[in-house]
Amino acid sequence: MRRLAALLLAVSIPAAAQTPKPPVAKKLPVTTVLHGDRRVDEYAYFKDRKHPETIPYLESENRYTDAMMAHTAEFQKVLYDEMLGRIKEDDAQVPAQKDGWYYYSRTEKGKAYPIFARRKGSMGAPEEIYFDQNKEAEGFAFYQLGGMEVSPDHNKLAVLIDTDGYEDFELRVKDLRTGAWYPERIKKLSWGLAWGSDNRTLFYQTPDSAKRGDRVWRHVMGTPTTQDVSVYHDDDVLFNVNVSRSRSGEWIIISSTSFTSSEFHVIPAATPSATPRVIAPRRPGIEYDVEAGQGFFYITTNWNAKNFKVMRASFDDPAPQNWTEWLPYRADVFVEGTIAFKDYVVVMERRGGLRQLRVTDLGSGVPHDVSFPESAYGVFPGANPDYATKYLRFTYSSLVTPNSVFDYDMETKGRELLKRTDVLGGYVSTAYEVERIMATARDGTPVPISLVYRKGFRRDGKSPLFLYAYGSYGSTTEPTFNSSRFSLIDRDVVYAIAHVRGGQEMGRSWYDDGKMMNKMNTFTDFIDVADHLVAQGYTSPDRLVANGGSAGGLLMGVIANLRPDLFKAIVADVPFVDVINTMLDASIPLTAQEWEQWGNPNKSDEYRYMLSYSPYDNVKAHDYPAMLVTSGLNDSRVGYFEPTKWVAKLRAKKLDTKPLLLKMNMGAGHGGASGRYEQLKEQAFRYAFVLDQLGVKR
Predict the structure, then answer these.
(1) How many Å is the Cα radius of gyration of the chain?
(2) Tell me: the pLDDT tens digits for 414-464?
(3) Which of 125, 224, 452, 583 could be joined to 119 by an S-S link, Cβ 3.0–4.6 Å?
(4) Is 80 within 8 Å of 684 (Cβ atoms)?
């Protein structure tokens, strides 16, 4: 710490900024010995929120960050006003129709949250506001919905509410005829809700001590919660439970899934007191998903099909021996899932890295593809609550095309654009160009990159570039629209997405090659993409900024250790950086399940592999890029203590004098602020940091 203090004397620090000093002398470090290694954790006490130094230290970090960013306050306001100026504050969703009711949400200028409304019979009927989130959020600094389900008769509304960001939800039920709330208030719940067809039975789920959804309950409205019945419990810590109602309305579906195996149970929604019936017992390495169609379950599975295929089984006996092949395996096509309608089945597929929609008419059995006009895009099917319709609702966008909601006629193959999100402030899509290029990873694998920039851009190495990636859990980063990005792009910053391994952009192997003992591919892919962009003249290391959040924040921590010379600045949002310590503690939310994602450090070979990249364990005494690290005190997914410990260790070891800022939201969780205006302020802060480091002052 003395060396750090001496270095700070040599740079210009705002007088109000006192560099936070972790109180390491006030509590002994934690020493562990594992697989013959002795590891010392000087900052382990930060895990204890009640430790007398924890909150004061976080507050000192926030004061330091505020002081170091004070000179950008006006710029932050400019950026915020720009981003807000592109948004139509008074706006409404396209309504979704079910049983003669038209449901939609809308926003009003000056209000942070959506208003949920409906009309009966037609959109010309009087509006009924059935849930005003602004009104319900009054008095709360944070207010998030974890679920919202209307009963089949449209007379009741069940909601899951989180008021601090920790994702401990409270269930409440509203009478939509009178507007009054029922007395039921069930607390500390997990995600997942489903109504039985009797409009009285409600299924919900609870988590275990590590916040793993592990149990489904049945509640009958008007009865004491002490009489609620546990209908399903999974005591395997690798499996996460969820409950939902099928789109057809016939089934309550209970899923229990790990990262490598699945098991589904079903209950007839018309007889909600029935015992759950298993579709197929779990088997090691076999994953499947279930969609209820007309008389059949459509089962997407990797059983003898690495990139998945679709099987079909009758409702009468859906055991695996009765599965029949409905869509055969194709090695070059990754099947993501199905959406079943009464007369059609839509298969979501990925070919060449882009999502396709394959529609099959169940009468003729003939399939066709829905075509899309751009070379890089994202398409997302909507809720499609009307099971008997011939129209498929989906949202399409690209890096330059705003969200566009379509109704696609599955019979005629025609489509109708219902709404394209208005982008205000003079936005013109033709002022920008999109590219999709490939970088060659060090093992020869082509890695896709999506880019957007202003027309007139020249590859002379002089342009700043903002490079984003995630690359974990098989989550695909789609090249879709975000109006806030144009506060960077309009300042001649190139925006790029590195589609690194660990996602599923290029199929299931893309995921498998970026997890467990292949995880290093995610990190080296990102570095190789960055090197490629520099070599091809898109940018230079002194103009290159990297960003990722959560597991993408892990990526940021690794590249900061491996190639600090390659980046001008790094923004790590809610970063998972203390890999070994977290994965050793099964009491921490998500840990045990994720032994199949990252590895189990109790196993020597997996421990050593994880230790080789764990950002916290590999902080070095060298120069780092300028860094902004964000977190939330109530984060249940990546504990606030991970980025806090990491920043403290970086302060103690790094040799440079470049900014290292920790911004801790003291009243939010993993997703940051809950209201749309506060979310924009957080983004304006990030962009002000980035542009300040790039030397862009206005």
Answers:
(1) 26
(2) 999 999 999 999 999 999 999 999 999 999 999 999 999 999 999 999 999
(3) 125
(4) yes
Quick check: 579 and 554 in contact, CB under 8 A? yes
In a domain, 93, yes or no: no
**E strand map for 383-489:** 391-397, 404-409, 415-420, 432-440, 446-454, 465-468
What does residue 604 show for φ and ψ, rounded to 5 degrees? -55, -45
CA distances from 231 to 199, 204, 242, 319, 330 (A): 18, 10, 12, 20, 38
Q: 634 with 684, same domain?
A: yes
CA distance 515 to 79: 37
Is it the case that residue 10 has pLDDT exceeding 50? no
Q: How far apart are the first and last CA of the chain?
A: 36
Domain span at residue 332 reads 287-421
**Candidate list 151, 258, 450, 550, residue with the active-site label:** 550
Region 51-58: what's the mean pLDDT? 93
CA distance 399 to 376: 8
Over range 341-357, report the average pLDDT.
Answer: 96
Q: Are residues 521 and 436 in the same domain?
A: yes
What is the share, in percent, of the chain residues with pLDDT greater than 90? Answer: 94
Task: Decide if 598 is inside a domain.
Answer: yes
* Domain count across the chain: 2
> Is residue 514 assigned to a domain?
yes
Token pair recorded at residue 283:
């088997």
- Strand blocks (E) in 410-508: 415-420, 432-440, 446-454, 465-468, 494-498
The CATH number covering residue 17 comes to 3.40.50.1820
Q: Which residues pair with 217 in a beta bridge?
A: 204, 230
Same domain, 487 and 374: no
Is there a catalytic annotation at residue 670? yes
Average pLDDT over residues 82-107: 98
The domain that holds 385 is classified in CATH as 2.130.10.120
Q: What is the pLDDT of residues 267-324, one digit of tens each?
A: 999 999 999 999 999 999 999 999 999 999 999 999 999 999 999 999 999 999 999 9
Q: Are residues 359 and 461 part of one domain?
A: no
| Position 698 confidence tier, pLDDT thresholds 50, 70, 90 | confident
- Looking at the fold, whether 396 and 479 belong to one and the same domain comes out as no
Question: Which residue in the list 154, 532, 670, 692 is annotated as catalytic?
Answer: 670
Amino acid letter, 695:
G
Residue 228 covered by a domain: no
Instruction: Categorize the per-residue pLDDT at 29 as very low, low, confident or very high, splitting at 50, 70 and 90.
Output: confident
Residues 468 and 477 sit within 8 Å (Cβ to Cβ): yes
- For all residues of the chain together, what is the average pLDDT? 95
Among 421, 436, 459, give the residue marking a domain's end: 421
What pTM did the predictor assign?
A: 0.95
**Catalytic residue selected from 289, 525, 578, 635:** 635
Among 373, 395, 421, residue at a domain's last position: 421
Q: Are residues 336 and 455 in the same domain?
A: no
Instruction: Give pLDDT, residue 25.
Output: 42
Residues 462 and 606 in one domain: yes
* In the predicted structure, residue 697 carries a pLDDT above the cut 90: no
